[in-house]
Amino acid sequence: MKNILVIGACGQIGSELTLQLRKDFGIQNVVASDLCIKAGSALEEGPMETLDARDRNAIAEISKKYNIDTIINLAAILSANGEKNPSLAWDVNINALINTFEVAREMKMDRVLVPSSIAAFGPTTPRENTPQETILEPTTMYGITKVAGELLGDYYVKKYGLDVRGLRYPGIISHETLPGGGTTDYAVAIYYDAVKFNKYTCFVSAETRLPMMYMPDCIKATIDLLKADFDTLKHHANFNVGAMSFSVDELAESIKKYQPDFSIDYAPDYRQAIADSWPDSIDDSAARAEWDWKPAFDLDAMTQDMLKNIRIKHEKGLI
Prior knowledge:
Distance between the termini: 38 Å
CATH class of the largest domain: Alpha Beta
């Protein structure tokens, strides 16, 4: 890997992953691209391109311009937004993905990394310690696209020998980027509202339990898989990755340890059914065995870091 193109670099994961990749591989060797480039972004320190991933020719032109040998495609319409516009979710999550694979194949690139999600699972999937190989019958368009994306990735590995890698991300929690239309957004919003208002109204129930991961672990998992020796990988586009699982009530109690007056109430909406279709916890033993995955953060460590950083933003008037 010498030159990396990050598609969807301005999103929740992309905005932080791109910066870390530039530290690891060099600022000029990591190209950030997205539909909209926000002025003043830290990503402007390196090469940036406006890109619609549904435009195959545009991906090819940028790849040739920068001699790209690795693509990370993070462009996606997430679960809640995907239910509002299923056809757009398919277009962005699948058609843009095929464009990525085809450009990588034609240019004989080193590898492609495309994340999947726990949304690939569904109500028929075992909820506890969900296995690596299991039933994939999602009930959302987002989940359907993630299953299709995993199958496409494995197809390109077997059919064309293209090095495709992917992780089934759990809910990702970060203090850097605001929620972007996913069902697990509550696990980010709760911290912001705790700092700003000392209370939060949650759109899923207190008992809702989902696998979660703090952003530093998400970045580490992504780069660790990106760097892994292909010959050690028995799986490719669908690695389970876990870090922690907790209910909303447990999350609220963690916040109360450091902010005792914090209060929470509940007003479940349509996102409750989506959350109820996903696992409670994940078996990520394949990732641990094949590329030595290991998370660093637990719930309380994450809560302390989230509150500290969001309070700094609040004091500066940034939120």
